[in-house]
Specification:
29% of the residues lie in helices and 32% in strands. The protein is of the alpha+beta class. Strands 1, 2, 3, 4, 5, 6, 7, 8 and 9 form a nine-stranded mixed β-sheet that branches. Residues 19-171 form the N-acetyltransferase domain. It holds the Pfam family Acetyltransf_3.
Length: 180
């Protein structure tokens, strides 16, 4: 990351849309496997699988390192600042300011991802001054495409991002949301 990229605040808590997005804590480690150790998350995301408490510890440590470097922030999605229901991520990348999310299987169908993406996008626009946020999604991931559409993103006319993760090829579409 260039030396002109500032680090993120040491602590972040964002509220809006009936959610509180907050830093992950040591107390959340036991809840992380229930949220992230699932076939859908293993298939559609780069999150490690199987996901156990040791994977949670590694993720928490990596989150803190990326934040200090000014590269990324990962926040727990909660309704009241308490129990985590999923995660929303903001990453500064060469392609742009990217958002990502994962919601635990037991908490899906409540609009958590859509609302968390909107709150994180507002943070990126208002606090970081970015002009656009992006989502990189596989077209076949209908749940994530629905999140993009409901959150107001549009499919951008840019080349697919192709690669391989966990032994399977992928092709990501780029969706964008411009600063209001």
């Amino acid at each position: 990351m260039s030396s002109t990229t500032s680090s993120f605040p040491e602590r972040i808590e964002l509220s809006g849309e009936g959610l509180v997005l907050r830093d992950w804590t040591e107390a959340d480690l036991a809840a992380m496997p229930e949220l992230f150790d699932h076939p859908d998350i293993a298939y559609w995301t780069p999150i490690v699988s199987p996901f156990d408490e040791a994977a949670g510890r590694a993720r928490l440590d990596r989150d803190r390192q990326l934040r200090a470097e000014g590269t990324a922030i990962l926040l727990a999605i909660t309704v009241d600042g308490g129990a985590p229901l999923g995660e929303v991520m903001l990453r500064r990348a060469p392609e742009g300011t990217e958002l990502g999310y994962a919601v635990g299987p037991a908490h899906r169908g409540q609009g958590l991802a859509v609302r968390a993406v909107r709150v994180m996008a507002a943070y990126a626009f208002d606090e970081l001054g970015v002009k656009q946020v992006i989502l990189e999604l596989e077209a076949e991931n209908s749940a994530s495409v629905a999140v993009a559409v409901k959150a107001g993103f549009t499919l951008l006319d840019v080349p697919l991002i192709r690669g391989e993760e966990k032994g399977r090829p992928f092709a990501l579409q780029t969706w964008g949301l411009d600063r209001p």
